[in-house]
């Protein structure tokens, strides 16, 4: 007991804490895009005119809600466009990275 906590256990705890914080946030943020996809699926069963009109309005409403709640401004430069083309949900990627890092470091700690 005089040696303190192992460095391996510290890595497991830090990755587990990061996973517990990031995974709910990642699912919360990607849940919003799931709803937009379901709207498109439902509209597909209606007339083609309605489907094309609503599909073009979804980004407009999203932008207007962002401006109303001051999440974005109309003059905001699109600097993150190149990053988002590679992988559209970075927070999901980082949360799974922490989760699998927790699993791997726990296995190393147990051995």
Per DSSP E runs of 2 or more residues, the count of β-strands stands at 0
Name the average pLDDT. 73
**Stretches with pLDDT under 50, minimum 5 residues:** none
- Residue share in helix: over 70%
Counting helices, strands and paired strands, the structural category is mainly alpha
> Count of helices?
4
Main sheet makeup:
none
Report the end-to-end length measured between terminal Cα atoms: 20 Å
SSE topology string: HHHH
Q: What is the overall shape?
A: elongated
Counting structural domains, the number is 1
Proportion of beta-strand residues: under 5%
The radius of gyration over CA amounts to: 21 Å
Describe the structure.
The protein has one domain (7-110). The model has no long low-confidence stretch (mean pLDDT 73). The protein is built from 4 helices and no strands. It has 111 residues and is mainly α. It has helices spanning 7-43, 48-68, 81-86, 90-110. Helix content is 77%, strand content 0%. Helix 1 runs antiparallel to helix 4. The chain starts with 6 loop residues before the first helix and ends with a helix.
